[in-house]
């Protein structure tokens, strides 16, 4: 089994994964109670799918009782530029690093399947299931149990080799493979990620209230964002990297080898004025193959309008004004809010 494990790791790296570690399906005993607490406090907001199949999500042994090992894989998407660069450009939008090119779900899933197929060829009778992001699997605690990294105070996995910029995927298998050691916490007294969060989304270190997180507000939340939170969004229009980018462990981060994660030039610092004018067809064309396509034109333009409201740039008031009668209620509301906010600014100048 040791030789197979080594060959498996070589295969995973050859396929493009940055790192591979293995744990057992019973290695995250605290996860279920913490998930339950998160949901009981309502911290998942509108993500109702987190309430469903909780017994599977919290406990991999319940998800697939035949599984003997969980192979955890890290996919590096390290940025080719400073992720916070555009935050100081009020007439531009900031798109999270992971969403500036192709959708990682497709890329990682294919890689996982290739590695999984290889494993089946090596050990006849082996069964596998591959997961990335959308299944009821708690990938971060599993990643820590396997030793890929530790859950930092911002709750994401941090690695001493990769910093914060990596996705997670898993291969569950009926094979009993040698296990790795869990990674220890290396946050120490640092609290950079907690202090940088624009919306105060961390009720305590290692805990996130998704309802205040910009990533949730810009990607997951349907309908209008609370007025109190809108000014705090700044020019984030899809996701947020602020807590990840603040982490000192990123000095070890490397640029992604996978060119499909490198930012498309037109998404590096896109003009809010152009994005606000996207209709459904133009939105689909611009974001074909991108994770942004999932959120749809209305939610995206809603975010762009909040950013316009926050821009302090009166020249953008006309752009917002042209959308105050938009067929989508949240877009029309965001447009009116933006016009109002830019006018208020004019009055106080
Ligand atoms: C729901 C979800 C979100 C939600 C909620 C995030 C959250 N922290 O729960 C929202 C939409 C906000 C979100 C945002 C982002 N996400 Co997300 N998300 C998920 C998803 C689907 C489930 C996460 C989950 O189970 N949450 C429930 C909570 C309860 O679990 P938890 O965060 O692990 O909670 C732990 C801590 O709270 C801790 N804890 C609780 N109390 C205590 C007390 C003490 C003392 C201690 C020590 C610990 C502790 O224990 C819990 C269990 O381990 C995963 C994919 C997956 N299937 O796992 C991706 C995932 C976590 N997301 C990912 C990414 C990249 C992001 C973003 C960076 C995207 C972006 N740029 O906008 C942001 C980061 C925001 C942040 N700081 O977390 C990656 C993270 C990769 C990594 N290196 O860790 C994942 C793994 C997707 C993937 N396949 O790569 N996400
Ligand atoms: S992603 Fe942004 S809003 Fe969410 S917790 Fe991190 S810094 Fe705060
Ligand atoms: S910024 Fe500091 S506290 Fe936050 S995850 Fe990184 S090391 Fe931990």
Which keywords apply here?
alpha+beta; NADH Oxidase; 2 domains; four-stranded antiparallel sheet; two-stranded parallel sheet; 37% helix
What report would you give on this structure?
By secondary structure, the chain is α+β, with helices and mostly antiparallel strands. The protein has helices at 2-14, 31-40, 54-57, 60-63, 104-122, 139-146, 192-196, 214-220, 242-245, 265-268, 272-276, 280-286, 296-310, 317-321, 329-348; strands spanning 19-23, 69-76, 94-95, 128-131, 150-151, 157-158, 166-173, 236-238. Helix 1 (2-14) packs antiparallel against helix 5 and helix 13 (296-310) runs parallel beside helix 15. The model has no long low-confidence stretch (mean pLDDT 97). Strands 1-2-7-4 form a 4-stranded antiparallel β-sheet, sandwiched between helices. A two-stranded parallel sheet has the order 3-8. It has a two-stranded antiparallel sheet with strand order 5-6. The chain has 2 domains: 2-81 and 101-173, 3-Layer(aba) Sandwich (NADH Oxidase), CATH 3.40.109; 192-246 and 264-348, no CATH class. 37% of the residues lie in helices and 10% in strands. The protein contains 15 helices and 8 strands. The site of one iron/sulfur cluster has 12 residues, from helix 8 and helix 9.
């Amino acid at each position: 089994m040791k030789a197979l494990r080594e060959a498996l790791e070589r295969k995973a790296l050859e396929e493009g994964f940055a790192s591979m570690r293995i744990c057992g399906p019973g290695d995250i005993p605290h996860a279920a109670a913490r998930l339950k607490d998160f949901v009981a406090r309502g911290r998942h907001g509108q993500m109702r799918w987190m309430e469903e199949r909780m017994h599977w999500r919290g406990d991999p042994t319940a998800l697939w009782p035949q599984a003997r090992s969980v192979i955890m894989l890290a996919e590096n998407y390290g940025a080719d530029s400073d992720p916070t660069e555009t935050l100081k450009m009020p007439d531009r939008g900031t798109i999270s690093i992971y969403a500036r090119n192709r959708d990682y779900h497709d890329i990682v899933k294919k890689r996982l399947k290739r590695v999984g197929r290889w494993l089946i060829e090596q050990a006849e009778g082996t069964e596998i299931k591959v997961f990335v992001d959308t299944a009821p699997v708690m990938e971060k605690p599993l990643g820590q149990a396997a030793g890929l990294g530790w859950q930092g105070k911002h709750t994401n996995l941090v690695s001493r080799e990769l910093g914060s910029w990596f996705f997670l995927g898993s291969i569950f298998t009926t094979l009993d493979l040698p296990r790795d050691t869990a990674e220890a916490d290396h946050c120490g007294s640092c609290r950079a990620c907690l202090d940088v969060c624009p919306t105060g989304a961390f009720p305590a270190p290692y805990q996130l209230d998704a309802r205040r997180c910009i990533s949730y507000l810009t990607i997951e939340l349907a309908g209008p964002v609370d007025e109190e939170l809108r000014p705090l969004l700044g020019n984030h229009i899809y996701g947020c990297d602020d807590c990840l980018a603040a982490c000192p462990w990123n000095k070890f981060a490397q640029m992604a080898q996978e060119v499909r994660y490198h930012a498309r030039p037109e998404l590096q610092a896109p003009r809010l004025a152009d994005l606000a004018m996207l209709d459904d067809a133009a939105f689909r064309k611009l974001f074909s193959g991108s994770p942004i396509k999932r959120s749809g034109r209305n939610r995206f333009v809603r975010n762009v309008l909040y950013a316009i409201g926050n821009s302090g740039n009166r020249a953008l008031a006309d752009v917002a004004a042209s959308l105050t009668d938009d067929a989508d209620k949240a877009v029309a509301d965001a447009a009116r809010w933006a016009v109002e906010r830019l006018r208020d600014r004019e009055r106080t100048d």
